[in-house]
Amino acid sequence: MQYDSAGTGDATIRIQYQTFSFAKLRSIFPRRQTIWFPAYPDAGHAVSAGMPEKLLNDVTAWMAGTKP
Fold this sequence. Notes:
Blueprint: E1 2-3, E2 11-16, E3 32-37, H1 47-50, H2 52-64
Antiparallel strand pairs: 1-2, 2-3
């Protein structure tokens, strides 16, 4: 697991599938994937109320394809 160097608390993990995994879907499914775990440490239980700007920025980046 890698943590964001910008100090946001976000983390990512990178996985690599075995060569036989998803063999029939190889043309549309990459062998390596990155899974992004955004962190909202100051949000409390309701992220949309506690840290709405970060949530909006994270969702916008994810929808734009700049986050995994």
